[in-house]
Automatic annotation (TrEMBL):
Name under which the protein is recorded: TIGR01777 family oxidoreductase
Species classification: Bacteria, Pseudomonadati, Pseudomonadota, Gammaproteobacteria, Oceanospirillales
Domain NAD-dependent epimerase/dehydratase: start-end pairs: 3-215
Pfam family, one: Epimerase
Gene3D superfamilies reported in the protein's UniProt record: NAD(P)-binding Rossmann-like Domain
InterPro entries, per the entry: DUF1731 (IPR013549), Epimerase_deHydtase (IPR001509), NAD(P)-bd_dom_sf (IPR036291), SDR39U1 (IPR010099)
Entry-linked PANTHER family: EPIMERASE FAMILY PROTEIN SDR39U1, SUGAR NUCLEOTIDE EPIMERASE RELATED
Domain DUF1731: 243-289
Family, similarity comment: Belongs to the NAD(P)-dependent epimerase/dehydratase family. SDR39U1 subfamily.
Amino acid sequence: MNILLTGATGFIGQSLLRSLPLDEHRVFALVRKIDNRLDTKITQLTLDTLPKLNEQIDVFINLAGENIASQPWSNGRKKALYESRVTLTNSIRSALQVPPSLVISMSAVGFYGVTRDGIYDENTPPAPGFAHELCNAWESAANAFNSNDTRVVIYRLGVVLGKGGALEKMRLPFKLGAGGPIAGGDQWFAWIHIDDVVKVILTAIDNEAYRGTYNLVAPQTITQAHFAKAYAASLGRPAVLPTPKWLMKLIFGEMSSLLTEGPQIIPKHLVDQGFAFQHKTIEQALDHINW
């Protein structure tokens, strides 16, 4: 099977590659420039060389996208976020000579917008906001692949937890005892263990019943305060120092809404599909990560 992968050097990409048998599949990684961190069995391509690829791509796994929470959302930052998701996806669709049989593309629970109210499954109308606009455009670019010959699966990710990624960035303040509730902590915290992210991507490759949009979040819904307490406990630290909403907005501007707001999101379509989560509670997930 020929697999085209974007975001191969990212947290999810690296975890996925460790589970893909490279002797059984031929993996093509789309990169900005040749990256020595990737296994020599992986063929590296750029947007310039992709149109010259003469082989049929069976599966396109789209993990690319600059970190939405790493910088405040200036106009320039918003443009970069859009280009790394929407523009790139459109460019790949134009560059491929033959459409892939399957497209698996990431999105995010930011699709549902800025709110704390209500329970959101895949069919719940979203609240407005930049995160929704970005995710909606990204999903539209992925769905443009959809045809009788191409199956499209879109995963709306919660915060992905594992050794690295978001947890690594939060580790120091939590170790210092500064990992208490944010903006009161009553907002919902949608999360998923990296093992389940990899598992559901591989499941979609093998199971043709997977199609359409899925909330890729754990079945346990928790508040941000619950997460803070659980993560601090896993590090043997307290979680008592609160961070007020006004301070987050002062530091991060509009982007602070990713941390201070959050609706309750449930993985209805995955549950209906019969997906067996490996990590169902935040305590069990953090214990498995075993810091």
